[in-house]
Fold this sequence. Notes:
By secondary structure, this protein is mainly α. The chain is built from seven helices and no strands. Helix 2 (39-66) packs antiparallel against helix 3, helix 2 packs parallel to helix 4 (98-120) and helix 3 (73-94) runs antiparallel to helix 4.
Amino acid sequence: MDSNSKEAIKKSFAQRLLKQLEYFWNRIINIGVEQETAGFDKKRTRLINGICSWAFIIYFAYIISYANDPLLRFVFYESVAGVIGYSLPIIFNHYRRYNLACHFFCIFNLLFYLEQSFGGGSVIGVEYIFVPSCVTAMLFFKKQMIVFFYFIANFVCFGICKYDFSVLKDMFV
């Protein structure tokens, strides 16, 4: 076999692999999306499925990495909570419970980031995730009161973390 044919085989394999990955990704983000699903529900379902899929992959990698490390066992348990918490919105979307998936996603993020902030302390800076998370509700909800509620909830959680780190110091860490 000459080098040109080897390169052609590698290129065709890479193209097939990319097509398979694209097919798999489209299947994942379209969980719960039907032909008759409303446009807004399609968009937010795909968005939540995509975000949760990536978070699931990342936290699953953490589970594998920290499974046998007794010194960092808390990272393992946080990762298990992350895998479970980020798989549930996809399951809710599968059963066409779009609003439940959106509310669960926003509330889980609040509680999960709050726990990670207290668990890791001010050193890792998880509390700063609350700042961009303030606007995520705008992507998932049309009602301004719901968006405002999640904005305020994220702002309050950020304030609690900053207060804990600056005034209370070692209360939770």
